[in-house]
Structure prediction request, 192 residues.
Amino acid sequence: MAASLPQKPGMAGMPSQQQQQPPHLPPGAAPSAGQQPMPPQGALREISPVFLCRIGQETVQDIVTRTMEIFQITRATQLPNGVTQSQATYQDRFGKLQEHLRQLTLLFKKLRLLYERCVEMTSDLKEGPAELVPYAGEELVSVRVEPCSPAVIQERNEVLEKLRQKNQEMKVLMDQMRNLLWDINAMLTLRK
Prediction:
């Protein structure tokens, strides 16, 4: 059996994304439809933050899906305003709602653990996440701009010049349209 991931304290309860092959299958047998094939042993030891972020993205998608299902269940539920519905229907919907909420809490815990693990693995980076993506209302930190090649600068200047010309043409057209509408409105006013 392959070596398992070294887990951070508190990650033992996190559902594993990579399922191991059951012991009753021979080593060359393919896993069942619900299981993913095992990656090589070296891949288990070196899990990158990118892989964890991909798992986090899938977790966020699961959270959104579960939340939408909760909204669909609540939208389909009628308020008990004198209409008698079967108690079994309400109990079934209530059970589904409770299960979705339980799954949501587990997914949020999993997302939190993935986030903490990513932060732990990327703590040696020079730039922190706050420097990469500014929060609303924060001052923007000046970004060091590297010099561009002359070809890029020339292309930028050409595009800017084309943009200025197009803007000038549009301004002329807008002035002509404004004058035409003014004349039409003046003629309509004189007719009355």
User: Anything to note?
Assistant: The mean pLDDT is 75.
